[in-house]
Amino acid sequence: MGYTHYYYVNKKGIPPSVWAAICADVRKLIAKLPAHSTTAGGYHSSEPLAITYEDDDPRPPQIDVERIRFNGTGYDDASHETFILERKPPSNNWGRDEDGMAFDCCKTARKPYDLVVCAALIVARAHAGPLIDVSSDGDLEDWLPALTWTAEVLAPTLPYIRAFSEIFKVEKVPYRKLKTGAQFIQWLQTTKRLGALERSQEPVF
User: In this predicted model, what pLDDT tens digit does every residue of 92-110 receive, in sequence order?
Assistant: First the structure.
């Protein structure tokens, strides 16, 4: 399928007050968009990072009471699938009937806008908790640039560290001792949760 992020949202939707907090954080992140990104292995780190409504539509990203929507732009082949996160998933979305969760996904192919997609999903999990379930073809290290950026822009950082840990099922995190994203990354390194992954296969794009 290609390098993709997967997310299930509760079919009843995310409460408006929680959704408003998610949108506010995503707006703050976009206002601090870096010029480049090392997301997902840094395969496009030399290319500019820019996002718009669509790659061929220069309107700004959609961030409103209904949805968050954007794609990459800025150079040839900067975009891939449009990221769309709905406050309340459409009724025709298939999903998991056993827990009432509706499925969606976004294939970014490791393009620079992947940074913003991952950050938005971290933010959504931080605020909505179990109302959104996130997984990815990427590993913990592929997502670290998104966590680092989120922790630099948003405060306090602990909710985003916790959300990241939940997405990747990182156990025994000493949350009370972690005040910054840098401290969390140092803890990951010290406990050998980084650098221990097998990367013998060619990366998926």
Answer: 777 787 789 999 999 999 9
Q: 96 in helix, strand or coil?
A: strand
The answer to whether 125 and 134 have CB atoms below 8 angstroms apart is yes
State how far the alpha carbon of 36 is from the alpha carbons of 46, 50, 102, 129, in Å.
7, 9, 32, 29
Q: Which CA distances in Å does 197 have to 42, 55, 138, 193?
A: 17, 34, 12, 8
Q: How far apart are CA 52 and CA 62, in angstroms?
A: 8
Rounded Cα distance, 9 and 119, in Å: 16
pLDDT at 204: 79
Q: What is the pTM of this model?
A: 0.94
Structure tokens at 29: 């992140």
Three-state DSSP at 190 gives helix
Write phi, then psi, for 76 (nearest 5 degrees): -60, 130
Which of 28-32, 128-132, 200-204 has the weakest average pLDDT? 200-204
